[in-house]
Amino acid sequence: YLGKVGSEIKDKKEETNFDKGIKSISNLLIKYMAIVCLVVIVIDGILKQNMGEALLFALSVAVGITPSMLPMILNVNLTKGSKSLAKKKTLVKKIESIQNLGAIDILCTDKTGTLTENEITLQKYIDALGTENEDILEYAFLNSYYSTGIKNLVDRAIISYGKQNKIDEKVKIYEKVDEIPFDYNRKKQSIVVKHKNTYRMITKGALEEIIKDCNIVHINDKNEVITEKIKKVIKSKAIELANDGMQVIALAEKNSYPGINSFNTDYEKDMTFVGFVAFLDPAKKDVKKTLSNLYKIGIKTKILTGDNPYATKNICNMVGLNGNDILLGSDIDKMTDEQLSSRIEEVDVFARMNPLQKERIVSLYRKNNHVVGYMGDGVNDAPSLSEADVGISVNTATSIAKEASDIIILKQSLKVIYDGVLEGRKVYGNIIKYMKMALSADFGDVFSIMISSIFIPFLPLLPIQMLLQDFIYDFSQIGIPYDNVDESFLIEPKKWDTKGISRFMKVMGITSSLIDIISFIIFWFIFKYNSVDKQAYFQTAWFVTCLTTELMIIYNVRTAKRPFIESNASSKLNILTIFSLALTIITPIILHNIKTFHFVILPTSFYFYLMGLVLLYFIIVSIIKRIYIAKYDEW
């Protein structure tokens, strides 16, 4: 079974939101690169009859339009996020999962340990009529004590309580003979013990599964045939306990054993119902506030539990989730994927769920275009952890659950998840800033080059100048992973949107080109850089102007608010931008004697025009920005 679960995990991992985003960005870049290069070759090669120069220039344009710092920006952002999360009790196994965590809008989790303290205590051991009976505690202790494998919370609570009340001394007379372990289909487990020549099979499990296999009930020290009336009394008592927030486990026995070769699940029939044990796992004090905070940042919490619906309803309503509308695992099995896809959007709580049903719910949420986080710690959580966009486990989880997870938290708390989501959104925010800055600036440059190539008898920028410009601009981008992110950006899940990036690139790129065209007119008509022998002056002037305006666009693109007034960049980004600006001014001066670069020293009057162009650029971008946000409700 474990091998099957393991192979299922290995084979089933699908593309996450991050994978799809990176792939779509790559496809977008390749498409634009191909189109732009063809246009450049056509304009410069065919119209100007210089194919050799056109091919070299097209290659430079291809390099220029590619955001060369993307791998560095991406990895530094993710690594920085990983370090920040480590300080908040979150270990990142798969670094790309940080961005996926910021994108989730559905969080699926069990209630035990998440909504509750995960420290259940035995409260009651009663017979079918609700009378306390120590024999029931003895039955429960025998079943939990002699069951093999890892003890779950219920078993540990029973054993601890039993030892405190000296029950372990009473059961030493029994010898374990056989066992049928718990599984999620039967929802029960049985052990067989022997004393002298007498055998006893004791079965513990979910009430609805136990009671349907009982034909006798033990009441008032005698056995009676179980009737529908008695079943109703038993179920009523169990519901009463569950409504008080208790987890109820039923017990049955059978005083016979068919032998090791015949003992199987078919023998768990015609048993005698003996009573219940009930446990209390109180709700965490801060969980209601955390659930509210998650909802405020666009995340709906869905409870997927194997517990009964009554106790689940009590806890969920207590912490602010809608526990009145609960979907059971048995109901789910009767529904088609189409029916269930619609129903799960309305339901927050799922009870009596087995692992396959949990995995199905996670899969359908993803098919409904949600980004899903799943939090689990058991062997049977592994398929759902693997199916989710982000699998989240705790450091005390089983090995296979941790193997299937992307993130491991050191404290089983929704507050840790909340902090992780915000960090993931910061990471995405800074990655997307770079994408928008780089693509819009590069697209604007290339668009300007294509326009100018039609009218100007020489290249507005030489290939080597374009590559040097790209190199200097990259210095400023190193500060982006360390930039501040506006709080308003963090309140909604952030998914990759290639369409939005493409639209932004074209709008802001063309806006940038508008300033370039104004610059070309100034260079051509005012400074008279309008002949082939003056091309070095034109190219140097545009090198400085283009790079300066690109550096200034950083402050407008990085926030939807007004730069410097409502939103400030980080000190690292400011320092690196100023450094790049200084390089922009001094590079042509330093390199003007090196013929390879074709730079010249520009007149002082040029820099006054440059300041005017930067101011005009800020005004135009601010106007376009307001129009863009009003129309598309994004930035």
User: Would you tell me the structural class of the helices and strands?
Assistant: alpha/beta
Number of strands: 16
Shape: elongated
What is the residue-averaged pLDDT? Answer: 90
Radius of gyration from CA coordinates:
34 Å
Number of helices in the DSSP assignment: 23
> Which strand order spans the largest sheet, edge to edge or round the barrel?
1-16-15-14-2-11-13-12
Poorly predicted residue ranges: none
Helix % is: 40-55%
Task: Describe the protein's architecture and organization.
By secondary structure, this protein is of the alpha/beta class. Helix content is 55%, strand content 14%. It is built from 23 helices and 16 strands. It has helices spanning 2-12, 17-47, 51-65, 70-86, 97-103, 134-146, 153-164, 167-170, 207-211, 228-243, 287-296, 309-318, 329-333, 337-343, 355-367, 382-387, 399-404, 414-455, 463-477, 498-526, 535-557, 571-591, 604-632; strands at residues 90-92, 106-109, 121-126, 175-183, 188-195, 198-205, 214-219, 222-225, 246-254, 271-280, 300-304, 326-328, 349-351, 372-375, 390-394, 407-409. The strands form 2 sheets. Strands 1-16-15-14-2-11-13-12 form an 8-stranded mixed β-sheet, with helices on both faces. The longest helix is centred in the C-terminal third of the chain and has 42 residues, at 414-455. The radius of gyration is 34 Å and the shape is elongated. 46% of the residues are buried.
